[in-house]
Amino acid sequence: MEWTFIGRLALAALLGGIIGFDREYRAKEAGLRTHFLVALGSALFMIVSMYGLGGVGDPGRIAAQVVTGIGFIGAGSIMIHKQFVRGLTTASGLWATAGIGLAAGAGMYWIGVAAMVLTLAGLELSTLVLGSIGMHTAQIVFATTDKENLTRVMAEIHERKHTLVSYETTHEVVGNGELFRVTMVVKTHHAADHTHLFQFIQALPQLTLEKME
């Protein structure tokens, strides 16, 4: 019986790890280790609730508590910056991974495998299908000692007909000059526009591009 339980744990960890590897490759907030542990922990809770309490207790209640607990982890992966929200897909992926772990822990092997395949399909196929249509969002953070660079970047955004979702700038005195740090969220029509905007900003003098994603 113990080897059966170990097999369930191993399957849950494997399925969660596969999803996590995809997320890690995409450089998302939650990666391989997070999904691996979420699936493994969910399977363990299910096994303990079904077989480790001497028949006392309701496995369904344990599963419900797992789902609730995953909500806290998922909330930690969601970041909000003005009108720009990141991490919703990652949080949903963690939620689905917990369900996969519960299925594996309950002995529903093929249900777990099917859910993993469908989860990956939803993540990857949607990226491929929707990647060529709709608006694409990018968060850009850069610092510059030349105030004119702010005007140059804004002019490029308007010339390319991108949509500026949010814009925030701070400045501080550095030596005899000023350092301007800008955080903006931009929506573009094509994924290739991100590359062009990245190259344009990076080529500006006296400017450091700190983040663009």
TrEMBL record:
Belongs to the MgtC/SapB family. Residues 9-126 form the MgtC/SapB/SrpB/YhiD N-terminal domain. This is MgtC/SapB family protein. It is found in: Cell membrane. InterPro entries: MgtC/SapB/SrpB/YhiD_fam, MgtC_SapB_SrpB_YhiD_N. It comes from the Bacteria. Its main location: membrane. The keyword Nucleotidyltransferase does not apply. The keyword Membrane applies. It is a multi-pass membrane protein. GO terms for cellular component: plasma membrane. It holds the Pfam family MgtC. Keywords: Cell membrane, Membrane, Transmembrane, Transmembrane helix. PANTHER family: MAGNESIUM TRANSPORTER YHID-RELATED (PTHR33778:SF1), PROTEIN MGTC (PTHR33778). The chain crosses the membrane at residues 6-22, 34-56, 62-81, 93-119, 125-144.
